[in-house]
Structure formats: structure tokens, C-alpha cells
Write a structure and sequence with these properties.
By secondary structure, the chain is mostly beta strands. 4% of the residues lie in helices and 45% in strands. It contains 2 helices and 15 strands. The strands form 4 sheets. An 8-stranded mixed β-sheet has the order 7-6-10-4-3-13-1-15, with no helix packed on it. The longest helix has 5 residues. The chain is globular, with a radius of gyration of 17 Å.
């Protein structure tokens, strides 16, 4: 079976947006994936998150927004295979480039919901991690000091979920697969965690690269700058 690959880059300014929406679009016949941005109704409601990284509910399920005061996510390089429309699964990996904003940083806490993590790699070395509910806790290979930069790669797969409200999450519908980057019943309402490991909050701003593999009968469409396409034969 011939499969096609496309790569795109999207640059998002690292600042708080209180009055506008930013979307990342993917389309596989078509597949579209919105970015982790709230609906207008929730932007003002969450304005305090942009003023200061307010703590999320301390229920052990996810990390606090204040981690954005500790680590700055520079880029997400997301590689996904979206060809299994029968089992409705996705698989692939995300490489996360980040910089420490303080000394003695020994771990990174990411949001990832209902997907199985196979491994986490840093500099060719497998890292120890735990994945409880929505929270993926990764122990780094070495402690970071202020301004130190590194990257990790998280390999994962599974069936992405739909938000309990029925509006939000990742959908397979006939020949279409698409994602809405919000979940109206979710807390927080951003919902990037259903398809890639991230800081799923209203605070972090990063650049994104996407490499999406599809069957040759489908195509992936994303917003951003088109870099290249590959026929995998």
C-alpha cells in the first residue's frame, strides 16, 4: 500500500491571546486538528492563566500550569501515522524541545490522555517514566540548570478519545479523521492531550512541526508552511 507523508511548520507567537483564537488544522480526507486554544466563551474566563500560571486542581491527575514557569516548551515535532481507520488508532512519536527556566530541573510533566506510551528517549537513552491518568511524568537523564536546552521523544499509540460533552477530542467518521482542540466538558478546556504529549494549558506558546502519514487514497492538510511531501511507495 502506498502511503504519503507531508511535513508542515507552524509558528505561534509566545504570548498570551485573550481576544482571538489560534487553530492548527489537519485534514485527512479531510483530517483537521485544531490547536490547543479555547472557545471564545472560555478565553476571558481563563484570563488569569495568562496573567499568571495559576495552579490546576490538585487531584494528582495532571500537572499544574505553574510548570510553565519552570520549563519553556520551544517546539513540538509531531509524527503520526493515521492509516488505521478500522481500529481507529493513531501511532507515532512527538519530539519535544524545551529549555529550563530555573536550576535543578530533573523531570518534566506532560499531559497525555488515554494513549499508551511505549518509550521515552533522550540522547539515545531510554528514560524512566510513569503515566497516571492524564499525567506523564518523565525523569530526565541529567538535571538541568537555568537556560539549559534539551529534547525528548515520546513514542505512543492507541485510540484517542472524544470529550464527554460530545464536542471535542479526536474523531473517526467514515473517510474522515479529525480533532477539535477543545473539550467543553474537560478541565482545562484545551484538549491537545488527546493526540500528543504537551503542556495542555493556556499559558505555553510554542512552534509546531507536523509529519502525517496517510494512505495513498487520503491526504493530510494542515495550516502553516508546507515543507515537503514524500511518496513512501
Amino acid at each position: 500500500m502506498i502511503r504519503n507523508n507531508i511535513k508542515l511548520q507552524l509558528n505561534l507567537p509566545k504570548m498570551c491571546f485573550l481576544t482571538q483564537k489560534i487553530y492548527l488544522f489537519f485534514i485527512i480526507s479531510p483530517l483537521f486538528l485544531y490547536s490547543q486554544q479555547p472557545a471564545d466563551n472560555y478565553i476571558n474566563h481563563r484570563a488569569s492563566d495568562c496573567i499568571h500560571a495559576a495552579a490546576a486542581k490538585d487531584d494528582g491527575i495532571r500537572a499544574e500550569n505553574s510548570r510553565s514557569d519552570t520549563i519553556d516548551i520551544l517546539d513540538y515535532d509531531i509524527h503520526l501515522n493515521i492509516t488505521d481507520f478500522t481500529s481507529q488508532t493513531i501511532s507515532g512519536y512527538t519530539t519535544i524541545s524545551f529549555q529550563s527556566k530555573m536550576d535543578d530541573v530533573s523531570e518534566i510533566l506532560l499531559d497525555l490522555l488515554a494513549l499508551t506510551v511505549d518509550s521515552v528517549i533522550q540522547d539515545g537513552q531510554q528514560l524512566a517514566f510513569s503515566h497516571l491518568n492524564e499525567l506523564l511524568t518523565i525523569t530526565l537523564s541529567q538535571t538541568l540548570s537555568t537556560a539549559d536546552s534539551t529534547k525528548i521523544t515520546v513514542y505512543y499509540q492507541g485510540n484517542p478519545v472524544i470529550d464527554a460533552s460530545g464536542w471535542g477530542g479526536f474523531y473517526f467518521s467514515g473517510d474522515y479523521a479529525y480533532n477539535l482542540g477543545v473539550g467543553f466538558a474537560a478541565d482545562p478546556h484545551v484538549y491537545g492531550r488527546v493526540w500528543f504529549p504537551c503542556f495542555d494549558n493556556f499559558v505555553e506558546r510554542s512552534t509546531y512541526h507536523f509529519s502525517i502519514t496517510t494512505e495513498n487514497t487520503k491526504m493530510a492538510l494542515c495550516n502553516g508552511e508546507f515543507i515537503s511531501g514524500t511518496d513512501n511507495a
